[in-house]
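Quarterly update, task 2.4: guanine-bound model.
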Amino acid sequence: HQKLRLEIRAQNNYSRIITFFTALCPLYKQNLRGDSYMSAVIIDGFSIAQNLRQRAAEKAALLKQNGVEPCLAVVLVGDNPASVSYVAAKKKALAEAGMADRSVNLPCDVSEEHLLAGIGDLNRNPSVHGILVQLPLPSHIDEQKVIAAIAPEKDVDGFHPVNAGKLLIGEDGFVPCTPLGIIELLNEMRIKTDGAHAVIVGRSNIVGKPLALLLARKPANATVTLCHTGTKNLASFTRSADILVAAIGRPNAIGAGMIKPGAAVIDVGVNRIPDHTKKSGFRLAGDVDFEAAREIAGFITPVPKGVGPMTIAMLLHNTLKAAGSTGY
Ligand code: GUN
């Protein structure tokens, strides 16, 4: 982490110099983009997700007409503020799509045994189609054990080893929502993935690893580089990316100097920055230095209202799939 931090700091200094020049000299910008200068198209994840949520509501209504009310159980352990707000957003989306919500809130000192027993009950309940345990869990609970306890056919997060394995070998299963949402954004914006070099920074089970598999397989058919804390000279990889995905968890980790002119930049970071001018006491920032990067990139997702809303839209999609909706 220390090495990555030093490298990011060096790159950010480089980015500041680029930003300084691009601010001062329009001709320099023109040369950077190779044609007349335009700042990046902002990918409106919020509106794209709204459309998908509308379609999900229509499919839910159709299922209900056939006597099946799609139902998701969202399990929240403790009161981590970010988790509380994510879960609230997921429950609101469920309600708006006309789906049932069987939520379970447990105290942060709940025993692993009690949590596993609760998951067992949800597994056996035929009116519950999907189960989501919000992560991270408190440190006394073994996350992998909890994920493995969810019935694979109700695992709408796609984190169960059976679903992770199916994604690896190209069988149909549940695919994690954030990577699925990113693929949807690229398709919606007609960003060419076939033959493109996609560079993902971050190797998590939730985003980086499943996204690498989705982008590498057909029909996306991209050439994928997966960077992580062990990557030497990160910028040498990111600067060759036609599609750059930042899933690092550090604000401003990707500066303008790390971006290929015209690239599609997908920012998965949701970092809370203390800000006393806000009622909440914080503002959200991505992993990308947005203001600098938008002057270099061809497409860029904002934070908020970029990838985040797509994760929720894809959760509805996976819940409908679990409830037996056809057409996937
Ligand atoms: N924590 C951060 N992202 C996610 C997600 O997509 N699903 C769950 N269950 N927990 C998360």
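Highlight for this quarter: Residues 25-31 have pLDDT under 50 and may be disordered.
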